[in-house]
Structure formats: C-alpha cells, structure tokens
Design a protein that fits this description.
The protein has 225 residues and is an alpha/beta fold. It is built from five helices and 16 strands. It folds into two domains: 175 residues, 3 Solenoid (UDP N-Acetylglucosamine Acyltransferase, domain 1); 36 residues.
C-alpha cells in the first residue's frame, strides 16, 4: 500500500471532497464545514504521527477531542491512504488495526470493527477505491478487494475479491467484474406442516385411484356402483 507524504495525502483528501461530493462548492466551505475532512486532517497531521512515535495517552485524548467535534472516531493507530472521503461522517468508527487504501469512500455510520480480543491485526483492510455505504459494518481481519462496493446496511464478515458488489446480512457478493455472481441459496431445515399435509392428501388420492382401477377391471367381473 503506497504512502505519500502527509501534506500530499491531505491535499488529495481535500480534492476528493470536490471529486465525490457535488455539494462541495468552494475551498472555504470544505475547509470550514466538512467534518470528514477535519477528522482525517488531524489524524494525519498530529494524532497518527504521535501514536507512531510512541507517545502515551496524548494521541487517544486528541482522537477523543476530534470525535467530539466531528462525530467521527478514528483510532490513532489506523493506517489511512491518501484521498479518503468521509461523506457526512456522523457515527463512522475506524478501529485500531484498520488499513484503508487510496481513494476510498465511507458514508455515515460505517464501522470498521474487530471481532477478536487478541492483540495484533483484528480490523479490516480496504484496498484502493473501495466504497462503503451508510450504516455498513465490516468486521474482523478481512480484506475488501480494490474497487469493491459494500451496500448500505450490510454486515461483512468474510473477505471480498476485487471489483465486487456486496449486499445483505451477512454480506454476500451479488456482482463480480460487472456480472451477476452465482446465487448461493441458503439451506433452511424447518418444519413444513402445509407441505406435509399436501403430501399426505396426495398419497390418499393415489391410494383411492388404485382402488378405483381395481374395481374397473377390463373383464367386467367387478364394476363400480
């Protein structure tokens, strides 16, 4: 995952606001009124560098202040590539060992969370160009392949190949490389009383038909009255 200098990353983040948000009208509006840009700015410029230098407590305090003002929680340890755009942003959570590639987009309420209490890698990796819809949760040390899209409200717990569209709970791939993916039908073993009743009636009808056929033998010895 290629990393630019901090100032190049910030400049790319700023440009991403104009490229991916038609509501962005001028530079002053983005600098003053875009909480997603503010959260990424302080993470890159101060919080993440202090964390890498091993400063205790201070990065977490600054991260908490950033969350207070922006509504976006980015752990000081998260690795973020250039050109990240967080649209609206309220409720976004990015965990400690998350890795985000270049030119990714996160909408409000997205969670990049962990599923383990173990130390080490436990949060997702988003490769370049990933888009994650509002309210989606990506959980665990999984990889979302480059240019994939995660639909709003989805919960993804397994790695996803590049160029896929993922929907649902749990998330499943419905498109890959622009083509519909082969559907995976869930296996559900539940009682089916209506089906059992219909099967019983079919068996009774078949038995009655056998009786009728015996009463209507060709020799005429037995007739149906």
């Amino acid at each position: 995952m290629k990393r630019d200098s901090v100032f190049r990353q910030i400049r790319r983040d700023w440009r991403a606001c104009f490229e991916r948000d038609p509501a962005a009208r001028n530079w002053a509006e983005v600098l003053l009124a875009y909480p997603g840009f503010h959260a990424i700015f302080w993470h890159r410029l101060v919080i993440h560098p202090l964390n890498r230098l091993g400063f205790p407590v201070v990065p977490r305090v600054l991260s908490n202040l950033s969350r207070f003002f922006t509504g976006i929680e980015i752990h000081p340890g998260a690795e973020i590539g250039s050109g990240l755009f967080i649209d609206h942003g309220t409720g976004v959570v990015i965990g400690e060992t998350s890795e985000i590639g270049a030119d990714c987009t996160l909408y409000q309420g997205v969670t990049l969370g962990g599923t383990s209490l173990q130390h080490g890698k436990r949060h997702p990796t988003l490769e370049d160009g990933v888009i994650v819809g509002a309210g989606a949760a990506i959980l665990g040390a999984i990889v979302i392949g480059a240019r994939s899209k995660v639909a709003a409200g989805s919960v993804v717990v397994k790695s996803v190949p590049p160029d896929c569209t993922v929907v649902g709970v749990p998330g499943r791939v419905i498109y890959q490389d622009g083509k519909p993916a082969e559907p995976v039908l869930p296996r559900v073993d539940l009682p089916d009383p209506e089906g059992d009743a219909i099967a019983g009636l079919s068996a009774r009808v078949e038995a009655l038909e056998n009786v009728v056929r015996k009463l209507e033998e060709p020799d005429g010895s037995k007739t149906l009255q």
